[in-house]
Amino acid sequence: MGRPMALHLVKAGHEVKVYNRTASKMEPLIIEGAKSAESYAGAADGSDVVITMLSDSPDVREVILGSNGVLKGCKPGTVIIDMSTISPAVAKDIAARCVNNGVEFLDAPVTGGETGAVAGTLSILVGGKEAVLEHVRPVFDVMGSRITYMGPSGSGQAAKLCNQVICGLNILAVCEGMALAEASGIDKKVLLEAISTGAAGSWMLSNLGPKMIAEDWAPGFKIALQQKDLRLALESACESKLPLMGTALVQQILRIAEAGGCSDEGTQAAIKAVLKLGYLG
Amino acid sequence: MGRPMALHLVKAGHEVKVYNRTASKMEPLIIEGAKSAESYAGAADGSDVVITMLSDSPDVREVILGSNGVLKGCKPGTVIIDMSTISPAVAKDIAARCVNNGVEFLDAPVTGGETGAVAGTLSILVGGKEAVLEHVRPVFDVMGSRITYMGPSGSGQAAKLCNQVICGLNILAVCEGMALAEASGIDKKVLLEAISTGAAGSWMLSNLGPKMIAEDWAPGFKIALQQKDLRLALESACESKLPLMGTALVQQILRIAEAGGCSDEGTQAAIKAVLKLGYLG
Predict the structure, then answer these.
(1) Do A172 and B242 lie within an 8 Å CB cutoff?
(2) Inter-chain contact A176–B246, Cβ cutoff 8 Å?
(3) Which of A9, A52, A109, B68 is positioned for an S-S bond with A14, CB 3.0–4.6 A?
């Protein structure tokens, strides 16, 4: 998702330096006018704003705080924005270390997926100092259509995890509803048309329901990534001693899908796990 | 819900006879022009169409097939429409007994709740013979804005239970998302605005989320009724040996809410159970 997000920045006229360990991933951006850096620190060198978009908490910690990391290249007053989805506690810790080095940090995970990144319509959930958000708002405006200030450092990540908890259970809702329809022998397409606009309606029902019927398992959002986000949500809930029994169950159902080789399929493939439990798939 | 539904029929100019064991419940309809019957059979006597709207499978069985029940009063060719939410298997059984007596039967449960009943915008899920549905469609059109033929007897109920399974898990989704927000110390109102139109969006998030924040527990749809519908869904899934682990969990979470005295509160009160599990409420 980093590529289309960076592309919006280039096209908006910002001077953009990019760095990725896999050089080929930078090429499409260089063709469009971005410069390439030699390292994380090099990308930060001379920049007013540094944006990271990575997989998980350890990656972000290493890229920002590591021996040749972003923080090493930053001048005082630089704003580091991490748009990955990671642990709120790690985001808070990284923020504290940045501030100790005279550098600002925002956690700013996004919702809207690859599609939203390409369209520039991401929803961005921001944690950190509000004044820092206002300072870099023009940068966010290029990538997203809804920018929400959620509170102090870690709050953007906390909000994203709430979002993912709801997404996960809404996915299981569609799976169990469709599995019961399958077991009952009723037409799932007719069912979907009848109920999608009522109290059972959800983005997941409207978007994943038809894919389940068509047995289209191409990702949208991969099960492996949903699992990572649910793990982060459950870890975060664990720190507060909050039992999230539904979310924990969703993670186990998705584990069944992963055991069946569906990690890189879209979350709609969770229906295969629910059907398998009933010997229906 | 029977009263506003019957009222639409009266106002549309149909000759309506009503019967309820509690005489006072008939009064508002009699004022509007309905006639009162002395029994279930009496309500059916001379009628072309008989509609039942009751709580659960045993009630419908008794009212239609009982010793002074609807079937006793029906002339051949009458159409009995049960708009209650009951077991698909019981609906099938009642349909068979009606047909044996020369009477037609449709199962036609509704979604849209009290609000939809009053507005005449119910979604009606119909099981039975399609020709019979077409015959009585003008009656449905007065009460609902979306009438869907789902298949043979029991299919309307089966579709309704799929709807309720999805509703139940979508409710738990909102509860766990809001509980994590509470535990994380982020502003739930701001969160809701940020995520309601994205992939986490659902009717339940938009409608129950604000009520949870306002601690408004007045029903919309009572927990006791959601529990009844989930029980029917789990019984139906049981007949197909289909495990519905999420739905089963929702029923247990709602049981916690019921143990706390929330049976007659709206389903949004399920958040109290999830918070209680985390000693947050």
Answers:
(1) no
(2) yes
(3) A9
Instruction: Decide if B175 contacts B234 (C-beta within 8 A).
Output: no
Residue B247 pLDDT grade (very low, low, confident, very high; cuts 50, 70, 90): very high
Sign (positive or negative) of CA dihedral A61, A67, A70, A72: positive
And the tokens for A214? 């068509």
Q: Does the distance separating the beta carbons of B173 and A168 come in below 8 Å? A: yes
- Please give the pLDDT value at position A141: 97
List of domains in chain A: 2-152 (3.40.50.720), 158-277 (1.10.1040.10)
Q: Which of A17, A129, A160, A211 is catalytic?
A: A160
pLDDT grade for A117, boundaries at 50, 70 and 90: very high
Q: What DSSP character marks residue B34? A: P
Q: What is the DSSP letter of B25?
A: G
Instruction: Give the model's confidence band at B266: pLDDT under 50 very low, under 70 low, under 90 confident, else very high.
Output: very high
Tens-digit pLDDT profile for residues A144-195: 999 999 999 999 999 999 999 999 999 999 999 999 999 999 999 999 999 9
Name which of B184, B171, B167 is nearest B253 in CA terms. B171
Residue A281's pLDDT is 82
CA B171 vs CA A270, B70, B236, B257: distances in Å = 19, 37, 21, 13
> Pick from A112, A202, A236: which is nearest to B184 by CB?
A236
Whether B199 and A167 have beta carbons less than 8 Å apart is answered as: yes
- Estimate to the nearest angstrom the gap between the alpha carbon of B268 and the chain centroid: 17
**Residue contacts between A and B (CB atoms, under 8 Å):** 261
d(CA B91, CA B84): 10
Q: Are B92 and B66 in contact (CB under 8 A)?
A: no
Asked if B171 contacts B267 with a C-beta cutoff of 8 angstroms, the reply is: yes
- Tell me what pLDDT residue B114 has: 87
Residues of B in contact with A185 (CB under 8 A): 151, 155, 158
Separation in Å, CA A201 to CA A153, A209, B242: 33, 11, 23
What is the per-residue DSSP string for B86-137?
--HHHHHHHHHHHHHTT-EEEE--EESHHHHHHHT-EEEEEES-HHHHHHHH
* pLDDT confidence of residue B268: 98
When CB atoms are compared, the residue of B112, B180, B202 closest to A165 is: B180
Adjacent-strand bridge partners of B111: B123
Alpha helices in chain A (DSSP H): 2-11, 27-31, 40-44, 57-65, 70-73, 88-100, 113-119, 130-143, 155-184, 188-195, 203-214, 223-239, 245-259, 270-277
The Cα–Cα gap between A277 and A256 comes to 9
